[in-house]
């Protein structure tokens, strides 16, 4: 893959601040966002895409009677763009096994926790309730296990005494906007791959928690 030739399809469900970070980075990086697809017609991220001249489409999951039928329609649309990578940026749908297999090793997700800890939702409140000292964000390859695919990269923050779920969400978002473009650009440069459920950077096996981009 050469500069500007890695084609990225971004899937969203909401505000799309991570999408915006990727759009902004892509103007001077080695990947190009060729389409943005939302499962929710009201997702603000669609306007962000349109504003930047990127095709913005909705495939409403409510129009389909099963997850499999929805995922099938999603795959058909994605494939018309022939992407090198699918980037999930706040896409709030669990993907079927068929979808994950179809794009095996080509789907990235960002999750607001230091995986493998705190999979699932409501992570900010859960780390506070557990009295954790640190919180963070992870980018990982998507496999059939929810939030369970091999971790590529992480950013960590220290939890302060006056933090609450909202302040943590804000701090984590700032980190997300750094870590996601960086990790996508590694993929675009051909430096990342997944094999037997493990992540590799430059053919080196990554640790279970991936690479910490800016160590505390
Ligand atoms: C982010 O917090 C991300 O970690 C999670 O969904 C959120 C999306 O935020 N997967 P935005 O829509 O990119 O602002």
UniProtKB/TrEMBL annotation:
Residues annotated as the enzyme's active site: 111 (proton donor)
Keyword list, A-Z: Purine biosynthesis, Transferase
Catalysed reactions listed for this entry: N(1)-(5-phospho-beta-D-ribosyl)glycinamide + (6R)-10-formyltetrahydrofolate = N(2)-formyl-N(1)-(5-phospho-beta-D-ribosyl)glycinamide + (6S)-5,6,7,8-tetrahydrofolate + H(+)
CDD domains: FMT_core_GART
GO cellular component: cytosol
GO molecular function: phosphoribosylglycinamide formyltransferase activity
Domain Formyl transferase N-terminal: 8-184
Keyword Nucleus: no
Marked site: Raises pKa of active site His: 147
Pathway: Purine metabolism; IMP biosynthesis via de novo pathway; N(2)-formyl-N(1)-(5-phospho-D-ribosyl)glycinamide from N(1)-(5-phospho-D-ribosyl)glycinamide (10-formyl THF route): step 1/1
EC number: 2.1.2.2
Annotated positions binding N(1)-(5-phospho-beta-D-ribosyl)glycinamide: 16-18
Annotated binding of (6R)-10-formyltetrahydrofolate, by residue: 67, 92-95, 109
Pfam families: Formyl_trans_N
One biological process term in Gene Ontology: 'de novo' IMP biosynthetic process
Residue spans crossing the bilayer: none
Protein role: Catalyzes the transfer of a formyl group from 10-formyltetrahydrofolate to 5-phospho-ribosyl-glycinamide (GAR), producing 5-phospho-ribosyl-N-formylglycinamide (FGAR) and tetrahydrofolate.
Family note: Belongs to the GART family.
Protein name: Phosphoribosylglycinamide formyltransferase
Organism ancestry: Bacteria, Pseudomonadati, Pseudomonadota, Gammaproteobacteria, SAR86 cluster
């Amino acid at each position: 893959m050469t500069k500007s030739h890695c084609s990225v399809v971004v899937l969203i469900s909401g505000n799309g601040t991570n999408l915006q970070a990727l759009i902004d980075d892509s103007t001077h990086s080695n990947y190009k966002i060729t389409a943005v697809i939302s499962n929710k017609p009201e997702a603000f991220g669609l306007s962000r895409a349109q504003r930047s001249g990127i095709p913005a489409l909705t495939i409403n999951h409510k129009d389909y009677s099963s997850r499999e039928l929805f995922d099938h329609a999603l795959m058909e649309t994605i494939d018309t763009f022939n992407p090198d990578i699918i980037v999930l940026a706040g896409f709030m749908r669990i993907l079927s096994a068929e979808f994950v297999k179809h794009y095996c090793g080509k789907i990235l997700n960002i999750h607001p926790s230091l995986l493998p800890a705190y999979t699932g939702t409501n992570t900010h409140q859960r780390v506070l309730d557990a009295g954790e000292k640190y919180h963070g964000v992870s980018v990982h390859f998507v496999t059939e296990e929810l939030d369970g695919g091999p971790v590529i990269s992480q950013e960590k923050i220290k939890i302060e005494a006056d933090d609450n779920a909202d302040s943590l969400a804000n701090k984590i978002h700032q980190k997300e906007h750094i870590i996601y473009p960086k990790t996508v650009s590694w993929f675009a440069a051909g430096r990342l791959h997944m094999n037997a459920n493990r992540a590799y950077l430059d053919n080196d096996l990554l640790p279970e928690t991936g690479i910490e981009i800016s160590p505390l």
